[in-house]
Please model this.
Amino acid sequence: SLRDVMKPGFPGLLEHLYAFEKLFAQYLSALYDHLTDELMISTAMYGTQWFLTLFSSVLPPQIVANIFDVFFLRGYAIVHQVALSVLALVEEQLLACDFDGAMLVLSNV
Model:
């Protein structure tokens, strides 16, 4: 729940980041390997911002409004799905990036 995500120490956030990392490795394995093994970018480095703000810091307001609508119906499952979709959309670009370029892309999807 959103409450667990915002508790001191962010226990819910850590759980969601762990689950997302497993999904990312399963569904976008080449990109996951590139970011984590080659560039040493952990999912927490960009996922924290995405998950805490429900993408409001990186996506246009109309898309965020749609995410919020589905979030209130389905919970954090939609956040994982959106994160995977965002990564799939920029996969080719990220595969060609170095560390700085990848962080720029992930911060401004």
Observations:
- The mean pLDDT is 94.
- The longest helix spans residues 11-27.
